[in-house]
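Field: COMPLEX_INPUT
Field: COMPONENT_COUNT = two
Field: RESIDUE_TOTAL = 962
Field: MODE = joint
Values follow.
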Amino acid sequence: MATRKRLLNLDTMNQAVLDVEDPLGSVIAREVEMQQEINQGIKKPFDKVACCHLGDLQLMGYPPCTFLRQVAALCTYPELLDSDRFPQDAKQRARDIIKQLANGSVGSYNMTHINYEVNQKVAKFIERRDGGIPSNPRDILVSDGATQAILAVLAMAVNNEGTLRTGIMVSVPYHPLYADTIRLNEAVKVEYLLDEEHGWAVNVDNIRESLYAARKHCDPRVLCVINPGNPTGHVLSRDSMEEIIRLAAQEKLLLFADEVYQDNVFAPGAIFHSFKKVLFEMGPEYSERVQLVSVNSISKGISGECGLRSGYVEFVNVDPEVFGYLYILKSYELPNGVGVVAMESLLEPLQPGDPSYETFQAERRTLLNNLAKNARLAEEILNRAPGIHCNPIQGAMYAYPRIHIPDTAITLAQDQGVAPDALFCHLLLEDTGIILLDGTSFGQAAGTYHVRLSLIHPPQELKSTLQKIVEFHARFVQEYS
Amino acid sequence: MATRKRLLNLDTMNQAVLDVEDPLGSVIAREVEMQQEINQGIKKPFDKVACCHLGDLQLMGYPPCTFLRQVAALCTYPELLDSDRFPQDAKQRARDIIKQLANGSVGSYNMTHINYEVNQKVAKFIERRDGGIPSNPRDILVSDGATQAILAVLAMAVNNEGTLRTGIMVSVPYHPLYADTIRLNEAVKVEYLLDEEHGWAVNVDNIRESLYAARKHCDPRVLCVINPGNPTGHVLSRDSMEEIIRLAAQEKLLLFADEVYQDNVFAPGAIFHSFKKVLFEMGPEYSERVQLVSVNSISKGISGECGLRSGYVEFVNVDPEVFGYLYILKSYELPNGVGVVAMESLLEPLQPGDPSYETFQAERRTLLNNLAKNARLAEEILNRAPGIHCNPIQGAMYAYPRIHIPDTAITLAQDQGVAPDALFCHLLLEDTGIILLDGTSFGQAAGTYHVRLSLIHPPQELKSTLQKIVEFHARFVQEYS
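Field: COMPLEX_OUTPUT
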């Protein structure tokens, strides 16, 4: 069987797919395997695998947002609407949502892209967030999370029919999804370095330099910015955002703003500004000219509903015809009903006095306080260690420290055909059970090495994890020096 | 603003997208518009729009499967597990599912493609369906409904790097999604005619003829078969399936079986056989050679959960490496948690004596009896009308009658730049409020015209709809003769 040449095989399949890497997938597969080995009684130097590679709040034990889940359960099984197990505000919100579902069911095809009813709520949410700057429901697309939106919008923007391929600019570090989407669409990845010396800020000179160099071999048309930064934890200053917008205007780049961590800002003084708001406050010269796409998701923020798959994308100054085609595409990939309902449940804020208000605020505070505590812990413990440097973390859910890797380890990694930081992560996992992601998967300046560590464990647990990482790194440096 | 050339516009965007048609989308948009006109008090010759264009059971008033929704609500809000509002079997099934969710939450990233736990249940479901023929959990991919699986698998199979483009064979009529997927991937649509004279059976001579002709200009590698047929309602005989499998083996075609209506078979004597079962019963000569992909979905069947978006795809004889890439891709597009839970709830059958058994069976019977009644009504009423012919309907949820369109109407349609059957559907809608889909969107033999009509209204309502269609058609023929 194995020798018989199949019809659909690696040679005959879509070759663009062969370039997809999905570094998270292979790490998670190793995690599952390792957990199985532990369950089978295979001896390890640790008791359990510590998952520091994902931004999955609920996996890490954060309870889901009670109000959201109540509304989702009520919409899924409306027979519960008369149950006294639910507070009045959850029942009222569920009733409002059910009224607007096709024939009252999350199980009908709910054509959010045609009837715009959910879009209206998203638009109001955005207007509230942005201090009243108008948002048009027809410029919004509800999607199964940010990932689906990123895949669809970037695919839409790629046109390789001319002499030059489409270039898509991504920060370094970026999220691996961007690199894979670019590969899948056979576009060109144009990297610009974030400024590690200045807390991972965006340096527009770096963008401009990369852009001009790239124009010799491709046609860069999209500038992707992740704010708050993943994996960096940097939150862009308003000045920096204005600079980016001016550059997008001058260079005619579509600005693709990945703003999924907009509610995860916790450092004193750090404030999230949406690109939409800054754009409009810069006046019509920019707000009528710059094409902006912004994505948001319920996977992050304060709900952390990674598994429910819901989010939205807002378009500014994108031709309705172009957008219309995205709608057509999405009419085949309708967003899932319960995910949409879950997102809707939080689009209008609970008010003081509402039965669910205090619980909601307490859940929110716990998460943001823990993130803030964990960020400080990571900075303190990592920066005390020789050979590790961690920038201040202002938002999102990760630390992205730089780690020293000795030359002997670099040579060993090269011999094994793996990246030096991937080797470090591999050895760390086998020795301590701690899973980090290597900087090579996110991108980094040549000759530097990083790891991404998620900050969503309970602070006490994170402290011990950080200490183990630091101790392992010291042993690692010693062993390979 | 309108005159300013945008960065991302119709000329610069992905040109493959421009070819996507989505005929359902435009009809649904017109439906929404029309309903709004009625709400605004604009006078119409009818009171309400009759949606006969969708296979959306819940939109048409079928209640969702109680057991499924109970399990889904319990998994979404597990605080309800101690509530006496739920039968014991629903609570037990929810507990079993929750135990296996990552940290017990539908809101975690549940990596069905890595841990295979849902896949194991799907595999057991398939084995039970196919009388024990083994199903490997590692050959299964859980997806957000069949649509997502069709899009992903066909994209995977397209490789236009050689001198000939990949050809994908589709029956005529087909589902529009196939045509659009082929366009999006810049593959070649190779049509083979179903045999309308013989109840829309598959005629392998037609396939072979199309295949040989197509090989002159493309490389046909995938043969798509929809069974039970959408829009035809034909259920393939076992003999016919064997012929198709032999042809796939001889001609080295990957057999792509769209089996989403496998539980919607209602005509006396009609039996659904899965392609997998027939393939394996034909012996190793075929079962070890033919590459088969089969999709299934909870949108149809007896649950009709279109909005929850869940389904699966099973691969037979597809290289694990190829399949591995699909897994990588899908690790970015994880199936939504509640959809998966909903699917899981029905993978193991309820047993007589279980508290939910009777309700479940009653819900199932109501649906299948109504479909059977409606199919007979459609055959009787349509076949009595001059100029309309409807084949026997054995399964799925639609009638696809052939309608006579007089020459004058054909000329008028040509003048208006629309297809003659699309003109008919348009006039019917404006006059009666009944929405049908035109045969042009599904494909039909040259010079023939059809409409697709869904059979999911309550029988009494469908009867009156059918009569209106027949009367309108008579007037239409008279007017244009």
